[in-house]
Amino acid sequence: MARQTRTTGQALGHGLLWLWTVAALVFLVAPILVIVPLSFNAGAFLSFPMPGLSLRWYAELWQTDVWWRSLVNSLIVGTGATLIAVVLGTAAAVGLAMARFPGKDALMAVLISPLIVPLVIVAAGSYFFFIPLGLTGSLLGLALVHAALGAPFVLITVGATLVGFDRNLVRAGASLGAAPLEVFLRVTMPLIAPGMISGGLFAFITSFDELVVAMFLTGPGQRTLPRQMFDGIRENMSPTILAVATILIVISILLLTTVELLRRRSLRLRGIRE
What 3-state DSSP class applies to 44? Predict the structure, then answer.
């Protein structure tokens, strides 16, 4: 088969597309490219060009109690919110995939609505709802709201892994005398595990980086890492904030890389080639 030759117009269009893509990537990544080197600034203040390179701000991050407490709070809230989101999102995805009933699409829209509703509305509504329950100023209340924000990610990713799911596997397990829970744990769950893990990682990232709800529901003793960074920017723009931001960037890259690897594994398990 003869190789198709590009015309001059096609080659020009291809080059312009690549140029536009590179320009968009530079525009999106440029702030990160500035933050990361500045976190190694040896000076006492943010300045560019930098007087030298140093790890002093990373050392200050690990040696300062307020940053440690905020990091621990973020990990506690993120872990709790992720576990709740995975359980609720997986149950909703399996139920929607297996059941047939009127209004299924409308229910799906309601369940993923936290992705659409502005965070300010979610934060304000959660604040007034939690006041009578005594959950304001607590990590539990924050974890519950973050779980509601993260559950739609689990619902979407698990729902994607259930596309084309062979229900005969479930019927075969039931015909062998297995209880519904055992069928789920031994048949369904291994097949949807990549979607559960991917959704859980997205839920954790959402919780770990969230600020607006944390400002409404937490007090000085429950500051999360993003809120501590925001308060630090208002009070004193220390390069320590850039060190924290760099660590968050690295964590996000690692988690997103894991999500991509899990996505590819899920496709391989289902025999789908990209």
Answer: coil
Of 212, 247, 242, 248, residue with least CA distance to 227: 212
What pLDDT digit, counting tens, does each position of 229-245 carry?
A: 887 777 666 778 888 88
Instruction: Tokens 């630090």: give the residue.
Output: 232
Residue 212 and residue 120 in contact, taking contact as beta carbons nearer than 8 Å: yes
Which are the contacts of 240, defined by CB distance < 8 A and separation ≥ 6? 57, 60, 61, 64, 67, 232
CATH number for 241: 1.10.3720.10
In degrees and rounded to multiples of 5, residue 41 shows phi and psi of -65, 130
Q: Are 81 and 147 in contact (CB under 8 A)?
A: yes
- Give me the DSSP letters along 61-123: HHH-HHHHHHHHHHHHHHHHHHHHHHHHHHHHHHHHHH---TTHHHHHHHHTGGGTS-HHHHH
Rounded to the nearest angstrom, the gap between the alpha carbon of residue 61 and the centroid of all alpha carbons in its chain is 24
CA distance 35 to 130: 37
Higher pLDDT, 135 or 233: 135
What global pTM score does this model have?
0.79
Query: Please, what's the b/e burial string for 123-135 (b: 16 or more CB within 10 A of its CB; e: otherwise)?
Result: beebbeebeeeeb
Structure tokens at 234: 């208002």
Let me know if residue 10 belongs to a domain. Answer: no
User: Would residue 51 count as lying in a domain?
Assistant: no
Report CA 169 to chain centroid distance, whole Å: 31
Q: Which domain holds residue 84?
A: 56-165+194-269
Least confident of 62-71, 139-148, 234-243: 234-243
